[in-house]
Amino acid sequence: MFVIVGWLICIACVFGVFIIHGGNISVVLKALPFELITIGGATVGAFVANNQMKVIKSTIKGLASCFKGSKYTKARYMELMALLFDLLQKARKEGLMAIEKDVEEPEQSEIFKKYPNVGSDHHVVEFVTDYLRMMVSGNLNAHEIENIMDGAIEAHHVEAHAAVAAIQRIAGGLPAFGIVAAVLGVVNTMGSVGQPPAVLGGMIGSALVGTFLGILLAYAFAEPLAGLLEQKVEEGGKELQCIKTILLASMQGYNPSTAVEFGRQILFSTERPTFAELEAHVKRK
């Protein structure tokens, strides 16, 4: 929602001031469709040529998420920590083998079903169950599991940032494609040298729209999307770090309440519940 609001503010200010200062908006509007096709087509072609299919799919999915609100809310984190608390509490009271069925069949687990927001997120479920399975096996110590977790989080980070980098490259190439469109416009103008000055002026103006459009699309549209997607990627990484912190604290002997408190402390301040809020939520669940 805020993406569209930002774009509308940008467009209103840029074109509004142009019109107020006596600019002939018809020249821009007349050239706009042709310049958009030239710049947009070149950008899409370069994007496809520059990225593997998995990056293209990830970028499209990431762009779609930019128009939605963040799913990483305080309520989601409280559900996540309550889920981990229940699992660790069950393991502490009944032994690690008691959660084996929850780990192996999370879709059938009553604990996972109790927290649908995170229990239905396959990324979260896989990350939690993979490392609980290692804890149940008892063959790895906390330091070994921490190294594996760090590698998994780093892989997730790199994979998610591929889409961000792809959009940033688009933003970097748009001004150049705008110049390409402008140069073609100038070439077209030079081929009509015999026309009256008023006609030539309009053609040159139309050609310059390409440069203007490339810069505007780069810094008002593509670059902000890349920045917003990067923020969403960081939020996703923070959730995995929270899970990692809680599980490692449990492996090191801390009780479930203390382990969950460790995880709460590393959250961003805007989504971090207070100790009392988390405690009340866990008890209520």
TrEMBL record:
Query: Where does the Motility protein A N-terminal domain lie?
Result: 4-95
Q: What is the lineage of its organism?
A: Bacteria, Pseudomonadati, Pseudomonadota, Betaproteobacteria, Burkholderiales
UniProt name for this protein: Flagellar motor stator protein MotA
Name the residues that span the membrane.
Answer: 32-49, 170-187, 199-222
Domain (MotA/TolQ/ExbB proton channel) spans 126-235
* Protein source organism: Rhodoferax saidenbachensis
Keywords, sorted A to Z: Cell inner membrane, Cell membrane, Cell projection, Chemotaxis, Cilium, Flagellar rotation, Flagellum, Hydrogen ion transport, Ion transport, Membrane, Transmembrane, Transmembrane helix, Transport
PROSITE patterns with a match to the protein in the record:
MOTA
Could you tell me where this protein is found in the cell?
A: Cell inner membrane
**What InterPro entries does the database record attribute to this sequence?**
Flag_MotA_CS, Flagellar_motor_stator_MotA, MotA-like, MotA_ExbB_proton_chnl, MotA_N
This protein's GO cellular component annotations are: plasma membrane
Q: Does the keyword Cell membrane apply?
A: yes
Entry membrane topology: Multi-pass membrane protein
A Gene Ontology biological process in which this protein takes part is: bacterial-type flagellum-dependent swarming motility
The family assignment reads: Belongs to the MotA family.
Domain of life the protein comes from: Bacteria
